[in-house]
Amino acid sequence: MKKTIIVLALIVAAFTVNAQSKIGHINTSELIEMMPQTDSVQKKLQSIQAQWEQILSEKDAEMQAKYQALVKLSEDPNASIEILELKKSELEKLQSSYQETNTQANADLQKKQQEFLQPLLDAVRAAIEQVAEEKGFDYIIDSTEGSALLYSNPSSDIMEDVKTKLGI
User: Fold this and answer.
1) Using CB atoms within 10 A of its CB, is residue 3 exposed (0-12), middle (13-18) or buried (19+)?
2) Does residue 36 sit in helix, strand or coil?
3) Do 73 and 84 touch, CB atoms closer than 8 A?
């Protein structure tokens, strides 16, 4: 009986502590999309992506030309097996180089995206912290789609306050 009373007292105490916490939420993805700096970040990333696409396109054209030459050479009954093997090896090296360049392009784009977005993320985090402190929130949860948020009271959304802090 005493154990039951102690357990009930602990449960009540836990609910009392939780009831005192003030929780807010914000959709950070939506906020970042609203920021004017996001457009310039997107333009920079698109420019870098276009440069990589140009390089990959040139490599692809070179591979296609080598492949066509190999096909034509393989149809020649007088073609040397050694030359065919050499051309096939060249084509395989080009394919490998293309794949490496594609991997490098993806890694570079991810790195640049992180580099360009970090100042925005830092500004958002700072504004959220300021609003949370000013409004007395204990927790702010990111309500971006895909998060583990199950319920949020619309009156706890601090989007407008953070937008004001950021001058949006």
Assistant:
1) exposed
2) coil
3) yes
pLDDT for the residue numbered 151: 53
Q: Does 68 fall in a domain?
A: yes
pLDDT score at 11: 55
Rounded Cα distance, 161 and 166, in Å = 9
How many Cβ atoms are within 10 Å of 119's Cβ, its own excluded? 11
Tokens at 59, concatenated: 């490599």
Kindly list the averaged pLDDT for each block of 10 residues, start to end, along the chain of length 168: 48 54 88 94 96 96 93 89 92 96 97 96 90 87 75 77 90
Find the domain containing 59 and state its range.
23-166
Identify the DSSP state of 77: T
Please provide residue 80's backbone torsions phi and psi, each rounded to the nearest 5 degrees.
Answer: -75, 140
What CATH number did the domain enclosing 144 receive?
Answer: 3.30.910
**Domain count within the chain:** 1
Q: Which residues contact 161 (CB under 8 A, 6 or more apart)?
A: 131, 134, 135
Give the model's pLDDT for residue 150: 44
Element (H, E) at 23: strand 23-26
| CB burial of residue 57 (10 Å; 0-12, 13-18, 19+) | exposed
Q: At 99, which helix (H) or strand (E)? A: helix 81-135
